[in-house]
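In these records, each integer encodes one residue's backbone shape. Here is one protein:

___
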Amino acid sequence: MGEAAELLDVVRGAEDSGGDPVVLSIYERYRPHYNASALLIWAFGVFVAWIASYHSSLEIRRVSKLVMKHREMRLQREHEREQQQQRRGDNGHTQQSGRPRSRSNSPSANGENANGSGSVALEMPSNSSAAEGGQERTIYQSRAEADSSGAAAIVTQNVAPRHDEESLELTSAHAFGFIAMASTSLLVLFFFKIYNVVKIMYAFGCSGAFAQIIVHPGLTMLFRRLEWERPLMPMKWLSEEAATRESLRGGVKGRCLSCLWSFFGPLFPVDIAAMIISYGVGATWLWVAFTIPHPDTITFYWLIQDIFGLCMCMLFLETIKLNAIKVGAVLLVVAFFYDIFFVFVTPLLTKHGESIMVNVATSGGPPKADPSWCEKYPFTSECKGGDPLPMLFAIPRLFDYQGGCSMLGLGDIVLPGLLLSFASRYDESKRLMGLVAGGSGRVPNNACPDAGSGKAASCFLCCCCRNGYFGPVVVAYAIGLFMANAAVYIMEMGQPALLYLVPCCLGTMVYMGYKAGELKDLWEGPRVIRAADRLMYGEPHVENAEEEDQGEERQVLEDGMCNEEAEMT
């Protein structure tokens, strides 16, 4: 406004002096022709879906690496044993021409055990420490060593005991309940406009996920690199012995320590540091959200919001398990119609023709005033609204003075992500059980009937689906999300992303399972996943898993794990 007043004074001065008139040329401010943030939000959404699903099968891959490491060590021992036998044979041939060779009375002098077998006992503990309450468990024993009369080489892993609350297997009832709760929450936000409550819940809820996924592992790695072990040791004042001793003495201190011990268990300095950092970042993000108008233009705000969303998606897929396509199909189909209804149908039912989904996602809809007016007077009531609600990923439009951002809801990540996580865990379970059965751990391309023939080069499934289901389903997710983003700009309105994601992801999984002859097993719940869980944890570690026959795991092992062409070592 100050520049406009100065310009007006110049014009009036030129008129009063009788000089040449002042010519003003008004140009429109620059706006990019293409929205680069749409491409960024697409790439980021695909990355989050991939990394969260891939992370959900981390424990299975860790056990597979232990099995492979043990196999390599066993082969190395056999090679060394053959070299020793060859050297003994050469020495025996030389001593036959000279003095006789002395023999040792110890049966282990030749590298063999007391039973005359060449097997040597071997234990390979995992990274889990016994101090964390884990228990050592045998997870692999080769067939040749198991049949030998000597001590069999085994691989062991310290597996922390699983609790029911740490993992949940979805059922059809959970699917319908989830959609009912999501619909109720969306309607409450639309009618009551309690967006600040959502921001508070998001800030402190995601701070815990941020601590668990990024901050705590990062600090632990840093302290180990610095060889500083004190932050990684439990605090003595909150040990079980101290809590028990003070509780027996009575008093306020004893009751407090007893409550802290029962609630937190052993407490480490690195845990406290991680919580302080994470909740400090969350509180700062919340302060920016409440004090600055349109904070989505601030890099710190939208960057932390996206990082929080990434951690929440990873923690969700790590905790919530989908062990059958049947349940996933129910959930995704119901969510498919849910998304369509709240985006396309609700404008026909609301008073002002508003889409409930778009209205809630933008905190009440875009500002009613002109963008130029809101740029000058951002605190007026007509300029409020349009800020992305923190239940989604958001990247602001680049180099656009009018603002705005590209958005992707967290539900568009975690709901298809359940299917991606299922595919990842299924592939990794097949690899693990194949290794245990004596095979190479390679997942075959059963979806392509021409695999191994000359026609395989021209077959799309053979070229793109060589390593199981996970890769093709991720590609299908990327295609579906790209179609959703393209539809936004073609139709110039918000789109329900699940309208494109569900057919792509679920259709790809079902089609590949049908071509591989595994659809029935995938639909009811793969035996290989339950067998891998029993192998690692001793019992199903999910809440609602059905009790299976004890002979099922043995059958899975003997079958070589679902048509795998095992390459016996």
In short: The radius of gyration is 32 Å. Confidence is low (pLDDT under 50) at residues 99-140, 142-165, 540-569. DSSP finds 20 helices and six strands in the chain. The beta strands are 135-141, 154-159, 168-169, 320-321, 392-396, 405-409.
